[in-house]
Every structure is written in C-alpha cells, then in structure tokens.
Amino acid sequence: MELSPDETIFWQNGFITINLTLVTTWVLMFVLVMASFLVTRKLRTDLKISRWQCILEMLVTGMNQQIKEVGLKNSEKFLSFIGTLFIFIAFANLCIIFPGYEPPTSSLSTTAALAICVFLATPLFGIAESGVLGYLKTYIEPTFIMLPFNIISEVSRTLALAVRLFGNIMSGGLIVSILLSIAPLFFPVLMTVLGLITGIIQAYIFSILATVYIAAATEESDRKNVKKKKMNKQPEILTEAKLVAK
Amino acid sequence: MNIDWFTLIAQIINFILLMWLLKRFLYKPILAAIDKRETNIKNQLLDATSQKKEATKAQDEFNQKNESFDKQKAELMQKAVSEAKVESEKLKETARNEANVLKEKLEKAFTEDQASKNNNIAKRIGDEVLNITRKTLTDLSSASLEEQTLKVLLIKLDTLNEEDKIKFAEALKEGSKPIVVQSAFELSTDQQAAIQKSVNAVLNTEATYEFVIRQELINGIEILTNGFKLSWSIYDYLESFQNEVDTGKKVEIETKSK
C-alpha cells in the first residue's frame, strides 16, 4: 500500500522526479488559475453580478475578513499568501470526491513545502512590517531568556504544521482505502464525507495558523503604530486639559 | 513517509507560482472590482444624498411657493368676494331702481289707463243718464210745462238785480244784433209778446227779437244777447250735473292713485 502519492513516479531522471504529487498539483493549479481567469475576465462592477463572480467575491472577501479578524490590519497585503494556502489546500482536499484521486496534501513533501513557505514568509512579513531589529526583537519577548524557546517554537510549529496536515489528510485517505477493502459499499462514502469536512477544517487551520504566526511577527510594528498614535493624541489631550483648566 | 526533496522544492516553486497566478487572476481583479463597486455605491450614495438635499430644497421651495400661492389665492379670493359683493349690491340697487322706475311707469300707465277707462265709463254713464233724462223729460214735456217754463223765465227776468240789468242793457247796446230767444218748443205769439214786453220793461227800450227753436234745450228757454245770457232749462241743470259728476270722478281717481 502506497502511503504517499510521491511514491507513484511517472518519470525520473536522477534527482528530478515527476511523481503523482507534482502532476496532481499542476492539474489543480491549472484548474484554479483557469477558473479564476475565466471568471475574472468578465467582471462586472455594477450591482448585478454572475454567480461565479459572487462565489469568488464571497471567498476573497471572506478570507480577507478572516485575516483582519486575526489581527492583521493591512489584510490585502497578506491575502495572496494566506488565501493561496487556504484555496490550494482546501481545493486539493475537496477533490477527494473524485474516485482514484490522491490529494497532494497527503504527501509530506507538499505539506513540508507549504510549512517551509510559512516558515520563510513569517520572518519576511515581520521584517517588512517592523524592520530586521523589530522582528528579531520578537524572539526576546517577553524576556531574553525566552530566545531559545522562541527559536524552538518557530521550528516546531513549522514541523507541526507540516505533520498535522499530512497526518490528517493521509490518514483520511488511508482509512478510506482500508474501508474499501473491508466494507466497500457504505463506509467509504461516509469516510469521504468526513474527509471533506476534515479537509476544509485542515485548510482553515493551516491558513489561520499561518496568519497567527505572521500576525505575531508583525506585532512589533503594530505596537509601534499604537505608540505613535498615543503620542500624537497626547498633545491634543493636554490642550483639552488646559482648555478645561482655563 | 519520506520527504522527496525534489518534490518539496518543486512544491515550493509551485506554491509561489500559484500565489502569483492567483494574485494576477483572482485577488487583484476581484478586489479591484469590489473596490470599484464600493466606489460606485459610495458615489451613488453621495449622488443620492445630494439629490435628496436638492429634492428637499426643491420641496421646501415648492412648499414656500405653495404657501405664498395659497395666501395670494386667499387674498384674491377675498378681494374677489368683496368686489363681487359690492358689484352685487350695485347691480341689486340698479335693478331695484329700474324695477321701481318700471313699477312707477306701470302704475302710472295703469292709473292712466284706469282713469281713462273710468272717465270713459263715467262719461258713458253720464251720457246714458242724460240721454235717459232727456228722453224722459222730452216725453214728459207738455203745454202746461212749457207755460210753466216761460213763467219761471219771466219771473227770473222780473226779479233780475240791478247789476244784471245793467249788464244786460250794456250787452244789448254794444251789439247791434237782435235779442235771440231760443226755446225747445215753439212759442206762441202771446208767449213771444210776453217775453218782448218783460224784456223791454227790464231794458226800458224797444229791441228787436229773433225766436229760434233748439230741441236740445229740453223744455228750456234762453235769452241771448252779445255775451249775456238769461235762461232756464233742464239742459242747464243736466250740464251742471255732468260737470259736477266729471269733476267729482276726476278728484276721486286722483285720490285713489295717490
């Protein structure tokens, strides 16, 4: 029994290996991009819009809203990263309804790649928002003693991201495969439905955790902004107090 | 459960590529469309607000105009009513005056007509009465009555006062015509002689006489000379009666019309 689609190899030349994970990912990418292209080439800006445009708008604005709710104020800057994570993972997981389909997210290579992306994106966004020092400062928060723990946390959470997604999706697929051999009529359907729910939840968890990590990395910049605002507000308050005293 | 490093690197590249492609074909156009729609809605809302303001302003203006129109209308109405009242009073007065004039005219015409009718009737009655009386007296006249008439005239002649006698004499002197004796019946020679004798005695002169018969005198005799007249006849009585009747009726009618 194959545990990962990586093991299904179509073509190999030394280090370069074209396996099922990559092929499936390309197909998914093509479908997503084509669908987006087809829908967004005739976008309407009035009040009457097509169903597909409505779905995509709901998806995009929903993701944007979620990012905002987590704490990233300038959500549109992070939308393409976090949104792509969610859309790719969710779409890859939802396609399990197609018979014989093996989601690329059940490959540890894919989930690790996505986790590495998050691992790399977090400091990048943090530095972009708060500067190198500002970002590095987050490692010694709340005290300097926390530095090793913060570093371990950074690595472990990336590992956890990769393994969580891989474990959930791979186990789902594995259970369906096992059940197909035991009770091929009824239980696999139920497990697939459950797999759909799990897939969506995992996509949500992965992207929301990525958002949280990025939010934590850009926390320093938010703090600075709040301080600046307070400093700007203070003279006004003083003036008001003076006016009251007068 | 091993990690295929080529797959891992490829998936990282794939993910970055997908991120770029989706940004290019999904997020940007969708967000741009949403922004544009929001802008449109905002503009439409602004337009609607400004239009609402304009509409409110227009409505206020309209209300003000309406109020002023109403006020003007009420004033004009009041003015028209008062003018109509005055005009109506004027017309009524004119109509009343015209009616009064017409009434007066009608009353006058009616009165005149009535008077004329009454006069006609009175005249006719008087005429009828006189005719009846004349006829009756004519039927009743006889020799003895004629004699009596003559006797009355002669007595009247004899008892003539001095003033009348003078007038009679002067009238005779002024006119050189004979004394005319008119009678309703033919006088006998003796009767003519008696008249001549009495007149001559009154006048103290010998005058010439002309005897004429006039039926309408109704058993009467007249002595006429140049404006002086001495007579007795039923005709005179009737004539004076008719005069009195006419005068009396006229007076009565005038009193009634008043």
Automatic annotation (TrEMBL), chain A:
Its main location: membrane. PROSITE patterns: ATPASE_A. The chain crosses the membrane at residues 15-39, 78-101, 113-136, 165-187, 193-218. GO terms for molecular function: hydrolase activity; proton-transporting ATP synthase activity, rotational mechanism. The keyword Transmembrane helix applies. It is a multi-pass membrane protein. GO terms for biological process: proton motive force-driven plasma membrane ATP synthesis. It comes from the Bacteria. It is found in: Cell membrane; Membrane. CDD domains: ATP-synt_Fo_a_6. Keywords: ATP synthesis, Cell membrane, CF(0), Hydrogen ion transport, Hydrolase, Ion transport, Membrane, Transmembrane, Transmembrane helix, Transport. The keyword Hydrolase applies. One of its GO terms (cellular component) is proton-transporting ATP synthase complex. InterPro entries: Alt_ATP_synth_F0_Asu, ATP_syn_F0_a_bact/chloroplast, ATP_synth_F0_asu, ATP_synth_F0_asu_AS, F0_ATP_A_sf. Key component of the proton channel; it plays a direct role in the translocation of protons across the membrane. Belongs to the ATPase A chain family. This is ATP synthase subunit a. It comes from Cyclobacterium qasimii M12-11B. The lineage of its organism: Bacteria, Pseudomonadati, Bacteroidota, Cytophagia, Cytophagales.
Automatic annotation (TrEMBL), chain B:
The chain crosses the membrane at residues 6-22. Residues 59-112 form a coiled coil. GO terms for cellular component: endomembrane system; plasma membrane; proton-transporting ATP synthase complex. It comes from the Bacteria. Keywords: ATP synthesis, Cell membrane, CF(0), Coiled coil, Hydrogen ion transport, Hydrolase, Ion transport, Membrane, Transmembrane, Transmembrane helix, Transport. It is found in: Cell membrane; Endomembrane system. Signal peptide: none annotated. It is a single-pass membrane protein. One of its GO terms (molecular function) is hydrolase activity. Its main location: membrane. F-type ATPases have 2 components, F(1) - the catalytic core - and F(0) - the membrane proton channel. F(1) has five subunits: alpha(3), beta(3), gamma(1), delta(1), epsilon(1). F(0) has three main subunits: a(1), b(2) and c(10-14). The alpha and beta chains form an alternating ring which encloses part of the gamma chain. F(1) is attached to F(0) by a central stalk formed by the gamma and epsilon chains, while a peripheral stalk is formed by the delta and b chains. NCBIfam families: alt_F1F0_F0_B (TIGR03321). Component of the F(0) channel, it forms part of the peripheral stalk, linking F(1) to F(0). The b'-subunit is a diverged and duplicated form of b found in plants and photosynthetic bacteria. Belongs to the ATPase B chain family. This is ATP synthase subunit b.
